[in-house]
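ugh ok fine here u go
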Amino acid sequence: MVHLGPKKPPSRKAAKGSMADVPRDLLEQISQLETLFTVDTQKLCAIVDHFMKELEKGLSKEGGSIPMIPTWVMTMPDGKERGTYLALDMGGTNLRVCEVELLGNRDFDITQSKYHMPPEMKTGSSEQLWDYIADCLQAFLQSHHPSDAQKELSLGFTFSYPCTQTAIHNGVLQRWTKGFDIDNVEGHDVQPMLEAALKRKNVPITVTALINDTTGTMVASNYTDPETQMGVIFGTGCNAAYFDVVKNIPKLEGLVDLDPETPMAINCEWGAFDNEHVVLPRTKYDVQIDEDSPRPNQQAFEKMIAGLYLGEIHRLVMLDLHEQGFIFERKDVEKLKKPYSIDASLLSQIEEDPFENLTEVEDLFLSRFGIQTTEPERKLLRRLAELIGTRSARLSAAGVAAICKKMGIEKCHVGADGSVFNKYPHFQERGAEALADIFGWHHMPPTHYPIKVQPAEDGSGVGAALIAALTLKRMKEGLPVGMKPEFIEKLAQEHK
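structure:
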């Protein structure tokens, strides 16, 4: 369809659009959806209070739903790090290999290649997965170092799944997330699996550090901005990392030879917050997503805020409204019945349509689903996208606030990465507004908010390389990079 006339940039006022021509029955549905998906300040503060308790519980000897994993990253970079390191990032949809040259002046050069993670790999065999990763690393080396193929390189491996780590270079997978469900990996250390595949393929790489992308995000962001005290990811999944101190981590008592004041980066894995369903305002659509997922009753927080699920929430609401006769009357909605046929990027497009009559949304639904929509229907669909996106941003902010309150942080920068944070319309502004609601900042302009969540440095690339560098430095100085050796050996025997 050809649009005549110039596009008007969307304004805050125009974003919601006029509802004057929306029939009363649809207005009532919009009102009900607003009630269902709005998280007011009182509820937000209650979530923050419960979140703080759950963070503490995760650090205790008893533990809790939020794993609160000590990462064995025990220092921030000082900016003087030098050398060349490889970084591997195994995300939910892509595999990325980077070569990072640290220049010693808080600066770096990076060369990178991206490889698609085939969907069938997510449910294939363990050997297929690790061999594929080794092939990608080998292809990268052959492409960038064809004449120097046998030089041993240190690798920072960003493995963004909940792992128990007894040392910086190893990690026992607790459970798969982001749609992965590969047998014989959960309960096992992933580092020997990757190194075995590298050995099979004769690839000269040593896994020096196994990190989470969120920890990497925090370290990389601190490298270029020393005010950064936290790293967060709002993308396919969600997570956070921050620095605590050993004395605040009761579950490490007796397991480490470290000064009680030693900093320790904690990989929260906060997607599991409120798995008990105590405080999060779940709708029937959230419940359905959870029940139909490969892992019911896990990742409760993630399933309400992460990019993997936002489009699915929208799809379930649309189907429900259709079945009740409110939208798409006498239309074929067969294509809409496919689970996860809508992703967060489509919600972004719905929100970003600059036309009052939402003709771009009309084109979208016609081309993607063969559904001819009416203007009132499109206005409902956009309002629904706004509500789902806003709820995600506000709940995300609750996690940031909980860590700040727990640690007594009144002013800091938070390095944030992920497709939802970087690309979803108004996500950053909505999150900032939620923090202002929680902390009572509305007397000051947003530019003066003391806690700022801002775009991060490349955590899975630069962060992984930095952590590899910091690890080698600690090892050369004879400093611990994990639990007491006898406990590592004992746990290794138990896993065998």
